[in-house]
Design a protein that fits this description.
10 helices, about 350 residues, TIM Barrel, 12 strands, single chain, 4-stranded mixed beta sheet, alpha/beta, binds zinc ion, globular, 2 domains
Length: about 350
């Protein structure tokens, strides 16, 4: 009887660590499966967010004012955000802040827009003059020394801040032509978004010199409604396309040959927005993503036309990454424990054989 008891105790001490090991192994496996599922759920199963950004360039004291107001009113009526590319210094004189000194109607109108969350104030160069020594097309910045570019961008940014009380964070180089020094200067001055043509850096969407680059997808002024819709559908249906579609226009695109507002072109903008809303697959936002409206995947819980300020897909991405990290860590721990267990079993077997 005493012999049996001692054998029982010996067996128990040998089995208990194994049970603990197996239990923790199963627990870790369960956790890693749980986290990797949650991660893939945020990116794989959920529909990808698609954003349309409207960018209105050449907003300045010398812009076609009736056209500027007409297109902005379309955005207000449809509750669709708009990034305004402001030229701070379009004239050779006066030497002061031209946004304040030249055109008071423009100044007061722009100040009235600052309280409307649909409008983002972005900076479109400084003078918008062809000052770059480039043979490959006009540019205000391309090929100019870093200090000259930095000073021009800084002065323009300060003029916008002084005139409207808004400090721009998005930079749009005039003529969609710039270089690495433009990127560096914009970054050094606190800009976080940069929007230009694809050919400028051969980047569709991504980071260069620490600043986020997005590129123009289509120009409204050159296109019919049909060609706008077909380009948009192609982007929406291409699984490899970037998540942002940027539509560029200028107030002058809405000017009829007789100098009046081109009602047909204004209607085209409205019809195109209706088409986009009708797809049910896009969100409207600004370059800084400070405001998002629409009825795409992000806002699927809210109805068309509602506004969700500050809605972005960043938390989804963070959670997905956390899931992936947990899955990898879990796999490593499981592998280590399995190895330890195998070695222990083998040792026990050897001991028993001896
Ligand atoms: Zn321009």
């Amino acid at each position: 009887m005493p012999q049996d008891k001692s054998n029982g105790i010996r067996r128990d001490t040998r089995v208990r660590p194994k049970i603990i090991l197996v239990c923790s192994l199963v627990l870790i496996l369960l956790f890693s499966i749980l986290f990797s599922c949650a991660g893939s759920g945020a990116t794989g199963n959920a529909p990808t967010n698609k954003y349309v950004i409207f960018r209105e360039d050449d907003v300045a004291p010398n812009a076609d004012f009736a056209e500027l107001q007409a297109v902005n009113n379309v955005h207000i009526d449809k509750n669709v955000p708009l990034t305004l590319g402001i030229i701070p210094r379009p004239y050779l004189t006066p030497s002061g802040n031209q946004l304040i000194e030249v055109n008071h109607t423009f100044l007061n109108y722009m100040r009235s827009l600052t309280s409307n969350h649909l409008f983002q104030f972005a900076q479109h160069g400084y003078t918008h003059l062809d000052l770059g020594p480039s043979l490959s097309g006009p540019s205000e910045f391309y090929g100019r020394p870093y200090a000259a570019q930095y000073n021009a961008i800084k002065q323009g940014r300060d003029d916008i801040t002084q005139a409207f009380g808004v400090t721009p964070t998005s930079f749009l180089p005039p003529f969609d032509k710039s270089d690495n020094n433009t990127l560096k200067a914009a970054k050094a001055l606190g800009f976080t978004e940069y929007c230009t043509a694809f050919a400028d850096f051969n980047v569709n969407q991504g980071y260069r010199e620490g600043i986020k680059i997005d590129t123009i997808s289509i120009e409204l002024g050159n296109n019919s409604l049909q060609s706008m819709e077909s380009a948009t559908a192609q982007w929406l249906n291409d699984p490899n396309s970037v998540n942002t579609f940027i539509v560029l226009y200028h107030p002058s695109d809405f000017r009829a040959p007789d100098g009046t507002v081109n009602a047909a072109e204004v209607k085209l903008l409205g019809d195109y927005i209706d088409y986009l809303q009708g797809t049910g697959r896009v969100q409207f936002t600004t370059l800084d993503h400070s405001v998002t409206t629409g009825n795409g995947p992000v806002g699927s819980t809210s109805s068309e036309g509602t506004t969700a300020v500050g809605t972005t897909d960043v938390p989804d991405v963070g959670f997905a990454n956390a899931g992936a990290v947990f899955a990898v860590l879990g796999a490593i721990i499981v592998f280590s424990l399995a190895s330890v267990l195998t070695i222990r079993l083998r040792k026990n077997k050897n001991r028993r054989n001896r």
